[in-house]
Amino acid sequence: MTISIRAQLVTLGLELPAPTSPAANYISVVHTSNLLFISGQISKAPAGEIIAGTLGADISHEQGVQAARIAALNLLGQIASNTDGSLSSVRRIVKLGVFVAATSEFKDHSKVANGASDLMVAVFGEAGQHTRAAIGVSSLPSGAAVEIDAVVELEETRC
């Protein structure tokens, strides 16, 4: 990649958020071998506001996509705080699990999840392509519209 990840974030107009602390009895990140397993990150913007609501009821598709993008940005903040800080040690985004608060009639979970997937590809290029599950749920912590967890492969010598 000819452009650094940090430069790519600036180009995209993004700033990495500070990682959040766990809200219950778990840890945010487990680093084993060259993998990071990142606990669910909700659609909480850096200023603290949460994109909350239920797709198909009280928030729009566009708000859902934005919620997924914000949750994915929070994943990047967790990765940065658990590596060298530059995100350059990321070899590949392996998997995203995207949970969408939605009505039983809502059918566009995968389109909402694209807010996160598109961000990963925009930041990491081909290394941002990943496997994914997009799952509808009746509710999420703090009323968030989206929550995302991840598995990330790191360069073996960089952690």
TrEMBL record:
UniProt KW rRNA-binding keyword: no
Start and end residues of each Endoribonuclease L-PSP/chorismate mutase-like domain: 7-138
InterPro entries linked to this entry: Endoribo_LPSP/chorism_mut-like, RutC-like_sf
Any single Pfam family the record assigns to this protein: YjgF_endoribonc
Domain of life of the source: Bacteria
Keywords: Plasmid
Protein name from the UniProt record: RidA family protein
